[in-house]
Amino acid sequence: MLITEKFVMLNFPKTGSTFARAALMQAHQPNKLERIRHRLGWGGPTLQELKMAPFRLTEAYTAWQKNRPPSQHGVYVQVPEAHRHKAIMSVVRDPIERIVSLYEYKDWQKYPFPDRDTVSRAFPSFPDLSFEEYLKLSDLNRHLVQPAGLQVEVGPLTNQFIGFYARDPLKTLLALREDTDLRKEYNLHFPKIRFLHTENLNQELYDYLLELGYPRHRIAFITGMGKKNISERSRNSYLTPAQVARIHESERFFYQLFPEYLESGMT
Asked: Fewer CB within 10 Å of terminal CB in the chain, N or C?
């Protein structure tokens, strides 16, 4: 996570957080006068990056992560108490596009979960998995990354989203029912968070910083910055209508919070 004087940014994976982090770091580069003030001990850096142990909802997932390096993807419950009063900002992305990006990034090949032998037994062609097999891999592991006692089906994105942003992730997950509408119950489970969209991130990040009082000359570069780590393949080259429908159903609680991704696609 990034902590500034005015807000905290939570870096949800594969949403454009690499771009946003780079932009914020550049916007907070001290000018000559500020560097002199820092050397004299008058004030300190206006941006701090915190890396920490990954937050996971199950013992199995936590144990699997124990040898991984500290992560930039700190979650809301890990925000230091001294900064909880600040505004919270993060980025969301079209779930379909994000799944394609996760598949193409192939982190699942380098770090198979729960282990290489288990995945290879289920998928003899591993690490060469088709997109359909990749979707099934997520289903195979779901019981290991989700807490026991869930009353409804919860897709992997929704599970990760709640773990990332809820005040009490376990309580929120266990409270979900078929008739739950997270949009109506948002304030019961989540703090106030400003969500920017990957699809319009340059402009939305610029506008957000402008709202917070950042000088235009310090942030004007953001609207022209190039995106980072962006997939070149279309969602249509991977997904069938049946797969899309399946994702819409399993991630229905996420779509309640961000209906724009059902209504317009934003892509």
From this structure: C
